[in-house]
Structures are given as structure tokens and as C-alpha cells.
Amino acid sequence: MEKTKEKKSVSLSLGEGRGEAKWSYAPSPESTSHISLKKQYDLFIDGKFVKPSSGKYFDTINPATEEKISSIAEADEKDVDKAVKTARKAYTNVWSKLPAKERGKYIYRIARMLQERAREFAVIETLDGGKPIRESRDIDIPLAANHFFYYAGWADKLEYAFPNRKPQSLGVAGQIIPWNFPLLMAAWKIAPALATGNTVVLKPAETTSLTALKLAELIADSGIPDGVVNIVTGAGVTGAAIVNHPDIDKIAFTGSTDVGKIIQKAIAGTKKKATLELGGKAANIIFEDAPIDQAVEGIINGIFFNQGHVCCAGSRLFVQEGVADTVIRKLKDRMETLIVGDPLDKNTDIGAINSKQQLATINKYIEIGKNEGADFYQSSCNIPAKGFFCRPTLFLNASQSHRVVQEEIFGPVLTVQTFRTVEEVIEKANNIPYGLSAGVWTDKGSKIFNLTSKLRAGVIWANTYNKFDPTSPFGGYKESGFGREGGLHGLMPYLKF
Amino acid sequence: MQIQSTTLFTLPDFSKTPTIDQVGVEERVARFQTRSIKKESKVQGLKLALSMIDLTTLEGKDTEGKVKQLCYKAAHLHDVIPGIPSVAAVCVYPTFVKLAKKCLDGTGIKVASVATAFPSGQSTREVKITDTHFAVDNGADEVDMVISRGEFLEGNYAYVFDEITAVKEACGAARLKVILETGELSTLDNVRRASEIAIYAGADFIKTSTGKISPAATQPVTLVMLETIRDYYYKTGKMVGMKPAGGISTAKIALQYLVMLKETLGDKWLTNEWYRFGASSLANDVLMQLQKEQEGVYQSGDYFSKD
After folding, report:
1. Do A113 and A140 form a contact (C-beta atoms < 8 A)?
2. Domain boundaries, chain B
3. Which residues are CB-neighbours of B272 under 8 A, at least 6 positions away?
4. Looking at residue A8, what is its pLDDT?
5. Which of A272, A284, A387, B256 could potentially form a cystine with A267 if both were Cys, beta carbons 3.0 to 4.6 Å apart?
6. Is B132 within 8 Å of B146 (Cβ atoms)?
7. A21 at interface of B, judged by CB pairs closer than 8 A
């Protein structure tokens, strides 16, 4: 009730009367006729697709329609053991003996093939994960290819990357990736591991296995020696089998902080090296002297990119009090223009929530936020009746003691707090167990440098947000994990000196 | 000292206008360009674009014959396709206003006239006012003035402001479009500042360019101007129109401009009362696309009259 009243009182809102739009965009769905998907996917071990030892399969569904797309094999300990043994054999007999230049050639080939088949991968990524086709087409797939290109270049230049330190590969890397950027995370993991001369056992998230399996097909086509890349599918049990396998030299995990802690405990006392890229709750800070209209874009991009399923999402907005009213009004108007719906439509801005489970988590936090007394606001867009969707959401007048401010929601939900001074906002921004990323918006260069040195975050964006590049290291402080991926730094976790 | 309370609001300090981040503006513009406009929304958008065109001829070699033919084209864009709207206005030099007015009598198409020593604006205030009076007295419905860019770049914002208010007064009932000539302003911060000056001085429309300077209208510049209009509307509730002019020659680009308009100012502005394209060759490309939507194939350019 409160909400409707507030909406009417904003008489100058540009959002008014959008219901009877004079000109709206007709549906513009991306064609799916050019993709080929099998009814059932097996495990990719030793260059071939093999049946799981248990014979068990699970369904992967399209979160926008709740319809089944395909069956995915569930790997158990035996399968993981087979994959690790294969990876070890390939490491010892082939991959570690190959001249570095030759390794690079294979990785370049994977990058090129991925570019050639970009459309197919983009459509499958959207079908399986729910992200808008605009993002999988313009961001996920091109970036994934760029990661392979970038690390392919390093393969024969490791001596120059680390002069006089004799970099050597580790052996077999066990890699576990999340569902928010399925193919991109596979690229982040596989590309540096291969470039540094390691072999790989990778497990995609159980809700988004398809692009990893398509990547397996592509890798098989690339002619890379059998067993260098192995992809095993499954849920937590499969992941645990990788983490606990005695013959794995390195664990690379991207996912939740809870699972990260379990992994950390499991590998304590072993020789396994690890990189953990975990949760986040980033502060996006808008100063009075910021370019306001562009900052509003940055807020939108910071929290609503990929439905907010982004570990570095700018989920805590801090606005300096002098511009708070302006920023919030502009933010609300901008939210009205966001199109939520069919992820395959080229005009969709916000697609489907990845799974029923994640939607339940988001809704749980929305209830918590309402009960805590922060001011709840959602845009007025229609959402499809079927599938998992969530309207872009704000919690205005939130405070540091609210759970919705402290905990990672991993959805299109933004908390808004105001601040008065630089000291205050630094204290509040750092007052959180996470430390993955942050954003700073100001016209003043000196203010940016002041904040970048004081914010405890691995990545800080100035006057932009959610920008990714293979050349730039990414990773967190505190409970957001350790180790860096991307750039020169991303080679180190896969090397010993 | 007594404070005058008759004014609706205090004028902003034009030396302290909001800052603009060019990279952010370009990114936003790129998003408009990825909108996919198909089928009925394409047809609707194309017709809307046609109805917003100020069909323009502003050349030293303009003659009565040229203006007459242009006016006929304005009223009969492409009679082969039924249901095609006419353009919003014909834009000419002041000396052709009377003729254009006569040719367009009864069509509902407005006559816009450039004035104030167009395109350079390098003349005295008196000459500019006389120029404006001449256009209005001859029947111009709309006046497109140019700002004094030299004075603006020297920081004489008050001069620029006063000049616009003087021309606005001379316009009487005619609507005033203020050309910023953004191609000479060099930064988006300057575009924002000039837009504010023009709007607060009484512009009914703000317009990017004369068409005589390159670059003419660009999408980043247009977005910054639309955002200025939005901020003014937030503050006062008053609408101001927008006219990108020059360099918009294809239907595809025109649709991108309309997407930007819709997503920045909303549906209220999606009318030729509040939005115009200053263009000479855009109409034919839009017509060609419309015919293609109807028949499924492109027609040769020879089937569309070139006036």
C-alpha cells in the first residue's frame, strides 16, 4: 500500500503513464535453430564421452520456461578417480613434455574455434542459465575466447613473466566453477592451467553444465592430446570427490564462501595449493561531484548485470547525502526502462534467475529486508508467469545493521545507504567480511586514489563498474577468497618456482 | 533589500553545471544501438521518424524553384504508400519563409526559419533581432537561432543567455529552437552547460547543429542534451523539445535516436511537438525501409523523389 501511494505522489516522474506506451519493442527472439544439443551428456574423460559408473543422470532445465533441456551424467568418486588418473597420465606422458610453444598453439586453436562457434555457445548459455542473450553474446562468450587468446600468448613466455625464477607446472588441477558465468569461468580456469603446463579436471555447476560440455566437444575437435582436459559433471558430491582426491596438486574454486570454507578445511594439511574466489558484497560509492547520469548507469550495471548473480556485484549503494534524492529518483526512472523477461529476446535486460533454489534465496532476503524495516521498492514491469524471475529491487534507507546489507543475496536486489563524509563511507564500505570489489564515482582524481588505497577490495572500479579484461587480475581479500585470476598474476597459482 | 519573489526559480550558476563522463555516455549510447527493432515496432518507429523530420534546405544556392519543389515533397513524401505521414516542418532561410508558407498552406506542415546570422552567428544583437523579426513577420512558425559560440567559449555565459532571451522575445508566438553547434563546443561538459543556458533562457527546443560544421549531431551529444531536458523537467515540470540535426541520414540511425529518446525522456516526448530530426536525405531512406517492410524487397532509389 505504501508503495502505490509513493508512486502517485511523484508527479514529475518520467515513469508515469508507461503502461500505455506509444511505441514498444516487438519481440525479437534470437533463433535457436542453429544449435545442436544431445538428449543426454556423458562425462568427458580421456578425450571421449563415457558413461558414469553409477549410470545416474540428472536433468538440466531452462530456468525461463522450467522445461527440461537435457540429461547430464552424475559423476561419483570412481568417475572422478578415473578422470584424475587420466589427467595424471596425460600430464606425465604428454603435456609436460610438449614444448611450450606447442601448448600455446592448442590454446590459440581453442580460442579461435570458440569465436567461430560464438553464436551457438551464446544461445546455449542463455537457454541453460537464464542470462539475457545480449550478455552471453556481447560479454560472456567473447570474453571467454579472449581469455584463451590471452593465456595462449603466455604459454611460451613464462620465463619472461617470472625472470630468473624457473617457473614449473604443478601437475593436475582440480577446478570447480559456479553457475553465474558458466563458460567464462571455465575459460578463466582452463586457459591459465593449460598455458602453464598443467592438466585439468573441471566440474561445472550442476544447473549449468551444457556450455562446459559443448566446450568439451570443441576441445576434442581441437586435437589437444587426450586426457589434458577432463570435464566431470555433478553436484556437491562430485566436487567433494575432486577436492579430496589425493593425486590433485591444485584446487581452484569459484563459488560461495560457505563451500570455500569447507574446501579450505578439507585440504588443510595436504600439499594442495588453492585459489578461492568466493562471495562479495561490494560498495558502490557515489560522491556529490560524480557525473550523476553516468553514475546511475553504473549503479544499474553494477547490480542488475546478469540478474545480480555476480560475486563482484555493486550490491551496496552508498550515496552522499547532497545528491541522494536526485540519484534515487533517477535510479527509479531508469529501472522502469529495464526489460525483464525472455532471456532469448535481444531486447531483454534482465533474464531469468538461474534456479528455483536461488529464487527462493532471493525471496527469502526480500522478506528479511521488509521485516527489518528498510523501504522496499520494485520496478513496475511485468514478469512471465512461468519460469524463475525477479523484478529489480531496491531497499532504500537501509542501514549497516540490516542483514540485507551484510549478507550476499546474489540477485537483483540493491540496498541504498547515504553517507556524509569520506571517512564515514570508507568505514562502512570496509565494515563487512567480504572484500572482493568496490566502485567509486567522482569527478576528482585525487579522491579516487585516496579511496583505492583505503578500500579493502581486490578490484576497485572508478567511474565505471563490472568491467572485465583478461589482462587484469581479479580476486578478493578477507572472506572473498585468495589468489588472483587473470593477467600475469593469474599464472602464478598454477606454477611453482 | 527586498527579495523579488516573482520568479519561479533562481537561475543556476552556469559555471557550475553537472559534470559529464564521456566514457559513460558512450557506453550508454552503445546500449541504445543494440536494441532490436523489428516488425510492427519498426514500421511504427519509421512512421514516427518521418513525422518528426524538419525537411531542410539551407544553401547559398537555394532558389524559389528549389524551395517550391521541397515544399511539395514535404506534403507528398511518397504517395505510392498509403498512410504515410507528412514531415513536421520545412526549414529554410528567412528570405524563403513567405514562399514556403504559401506553398504549404493548408497542409499543417510548419515553416521553420533559421535566423540570427545563421550559421556563424557572428553579428550584432541588432542584426540578429532584425533577422528574427523578418522571419516571424513573414510567417515563420518556428525560428532556429544559433548561439554565439565565441562568447560561450570565452566564458561570457551571461551574454549568451541574454542574447537568447532577446531572440525569444522577438519570436513572439513562434517557437524558438536554439542551435548550440556542438561540433564547435568540443566537450560534453560544454554541451551540458550550453544546453542549460539555452533552456533557462527560454528555448522551446534545443538543437545540436547547423549542419555546416563537422561533426554535426552525434548520439553522445544528443544524450547529454536529453538528460539536461530531463533534469529541467524534474525541477520545473516543463517540457523542452530536442532536435538533433545533420548527419542523420539512415532509418537505422534514426530509430536508434528514437530508442534513446524513449528510454531517456519517455513516451511523452515521442511526438513531433517535442522531437525533430533536422535532415534532408533521411526521409527517402525511411521511405525505402517502409516500402521494404510492406513488400519484402528493396526498391531502387530511383522510385523515390529527390527534391
Report:
1. no
2. 37-294
3. B51, B52, B88
4. 33
5. A272
6. no
7. yes
Name the interface residues of B facing A (CB cutoff 8 Å): 18-21, 23-25, 27-28, 34-42, 44-45, 48, 227, 230, 233-234, 237, 258, 262-263, 265-268, 270-271
Which fold would CATH assign to domain A40-278+480-496?
Answer: Aldehyde Dehydrogenase; Chain A, domain 1 (3.40.605)
In this complex, do B38 and A12 lie within 8 Å of one another by their Cβ atoms? Answer: no
Q: Which residues pair with A474 in a beta bridge?
A: A485
Contacts of B167 (CB under 8 A, 6+ apart): B115, B116, B128, B129, B132, B143, B145, B176
Which 3-state string (H, E, C) describes B169-185? HHHCCCEEEEECCHHHC
CB A193 within 8 A of CB A172: no
Question: Hey, are the CB atoms on B41 and A290 less than 8 Å from each other?
Answer: no
Cβ(B188)–Cβ(B22) below 8 Å: yes
Among residues A74, A120, A135, A311, the one annotated as catalytic is A311
pLDDT of residue B307: 78
Domain with CATH 3.40.605.10 in chain A: 40-278+480-496
Provide the 10 A C-beta neighbour count for residue B3.
5
Q: What is the mean pLDDT of chain B?
A: 95
CA dist B97 and B113 (Å) reads 7
DSSP 8-state assignment for residue A251: E
CB distance B181 to B147 below 8 Å: yes
Could you identify the residue written with the cell 570454507? A261
User: Which residue in A23, A31, A330 has the most chain B C-beta atoms within 10 A of its own C-beta, making it the best mutation to test that interface?
Assistant: A23
DSSP class of residue A485 equals B
- At residue B46, the pLDDT reads 96
Query: How many whole angstroms separate alpha carbon A365 and alpha carbon A393?
Result: 11
> Which are the contacts of A304, defined by CB distance < 8 A and separation ≥ 6?
A338, A349, A350, A392, A412
Q: Which three cell numbers stand for residue A458?
A: 581486490
Q: Which residues of chain A fall short of a pLDDT of 50?
A: 1-13, 15-19
CATH of the domain spanning A280-462: 3.40.309.10
Q: Which helix (H) or strand (E) holds B289?
A: helix B282-295
B133: nearest Cα among B94, B163, B187: B94
For residue A312, CA distances in Å to A33, A298, A307, A373 come to 34, 13, 13, 26
Give the other-Cβ count within 10 Å of B101's Cβ. 19
pTM, to two decimals? 0.94
CB A79 within 8 A of CB A402: no
Q: What is the pLDDT of residues A398-420, one digit of tens each?
A: 999 999 999 999 999 999 999 99
- Answer whether residue B196 shows pLDDT above 90: yes
Q: Which residue from B20, B41, B266 is facing A25, i.e. has the nearest CB?
A: B41
Tell me which residues of B are annotated as active site.
144, 207, 243
A297 is catalytic: no
Q: Which DSSP symbol is given to A31?
A: P
Q: Where in chain A is the domain with CATH 3.40.309.10?
A: 280-462
Architecture of domain B37-294: Alpha-Beta Barrel (3.20)
Cα-flanking dihedrals φ and ψ of residue A268, to 5°? -60, 135
